[in-house]
Design brief:
OB fold (Dihydrolipoamide Acetyltransferase, E2P); 3 domains; six-stranded antiparallel β-sheet
Amino acid sequence: MQVSTAEFKKGLKIVFDGQPYTIVDFQHVKPGKGGAFVRTKLRHMKLGKVIDNTFRSGEKVELVDFEDKHMQYLYRDDRYHFMDMETYDQVSLSEDEVGDAREFLRENTEVEVLYIDGSPVTVELPNFVELAIAKTDPGVRGDTAQGGNKSATLETGAVIQVPLFVNEGDIVKVDTRTGEYLSRVTAAS
């Protein structure tokens, strides 16, 4: 199936130069002279690299033929293991195939695994996850008034910036798209 540049939106999966890409950002531009065009940032779905490209307005592009499967992350040895929630089939993915999602993967997390041509390509996490703080420096009394930040290591090994009042053992909500701290869900007892 083909779509016009007028139908572009963030997250749309298109074929460009024979490769699958996701539209990260786009902007319609109508210069005073000449024809309109669409500036895009495209992320390669397999390699993860981001490129810039310009399409003429009205140009048609092919959509990626893909399938999303709802899966659950089970465990990690030298590979990452997932189970299909409908068929209970298991699949193992390499570190490259899992990509940046491994920063926030915790056992039993439900994810979407994207398949292209019958083979798994990438893992899409939920937009928000709740993870425990494994290690962080203690906040000094009185520091909370300034509203500063400190580094904290999550239970998955990812390092994020958190407010000074967050302590080890606290459960925090994290945006998986940006890696930003959103809120403290529960404080350590």
